Amino acid sequence: MKNGVKSRRKDLDSWRGLAVLLMLVFHGYYNLHSFQLVSMDLSQWSPWWWLRFFIANSFLFLAGMGLALGHSRGLSLAKFLRWWLPIAAGALLISLATRLLLSNSWIFFGILHLIATAALLAWPLSRQPRLAFVLALLLLALYLFTPYWQLSHWWPEYRSALGLPNSSLDYYPLLPHGISLLLGMALANILPKRDLLAGAQGPISQSLTWLGLHALSIYLLHQAILYPAAYGLYLLQRS
Questions:
Q1: In a domain, 191, yes or no
Q2: Dihedral through CA 214, CA 13, CA 131, CA 180, nearest 10?
Q3: Can you tell me the distance from the alpha carbon of 160 to that of 125, in angstroms, rounded to the nearest whole number?
């Protein structure tokens, strides 16, 4: 979830950090909802739905932007792989852990799987922002106006055959979400040259930057803390 180059932009790291903070809020509240301690409307277009949409697509957009900026600063294939491999390994770890713990709803293609897959597929376009933008618009049009490109059109036919669960705790199909990564790549070249938060030294800015710099580690570990905490509150309520 980090851009993998030495010269970083504090404004982009802070944006990623904000997404991490909102993710912690969302998952913390979702855990409480799972134990029926609070109510949470997750229906499409609800405020919680929009928050989840913003979080996931922020990670994707920033990943795409980081790839394009990295290329402009000399991001080689070796550096790309040093950025990509931890994300792919994290995705595999999430799948293995949830497969063992949640056999009926394990995560087979969550946000990390999506970032890893989309980044690998889009890597050849990281130096072609205009082509990335055109492809993003084309894929969006195909998704909106051609039912075949919507996984819900054909996915149920293959899910059981592949041994995948009927539902998953975290599922982000390549379309439409992968379009956000392409847009990040396409729009990186119109960023202001100056880091908008380069001189920011306040505690909020520093905290968001720290969260952004450690986004992957926090993502992998946060539910190991938040879920037991919610369960503890559930037990306290019952006692």
A1: no
A2: 70
A3: 34
Which residues are within 8 A (CB) of 212 and not within 5 positions of it... i.e. 6 or more apart? Answer: 2, 12, 13, 14, 15, 16, 17, 18, 19, 20
Dist. CA 151–CA 174, nearest whole Å: 9
**The total number of structural domains that make up the chain:** 1
Helix (H) / strand (E) element for 133: namely: helix 129-145
d(CA 225, CA 36): 18
Is residue 3 domain-resident? Answer: no
Surface-to-core class of residue 3, CB atoms within 10 Å of its CB (0-12 exposed, 13-18 middle, 19+ buried): buried
Rg (CA), the chain: 19
Q: Give, as one character, the DSSP assignment of residue 164.
A: -
The pair of structure tokens assigned to 202 is: 């306040």
- Parent domain of 224: 10-186+200-238
The pLDDT value recorded for residue 233 is 97
Q: Is residue 194 part of a domain?
A: no
Q: Rounded to the nearest 5°, which phi and psi values hold at 171? A: -135, 120
* pLDDT tens string 7-25: 688 989 999 999 999 999 9
DSSP secondary structure code for residue 202 in this structure:
S
Decide if pLDDT at 159 tops 80. no
In 116-226, the DSSP E strands lie at none
In a domain, 170, yes or no: yes
Contacts of 72 (CB under 8 A, 6+ apart): 188, 189
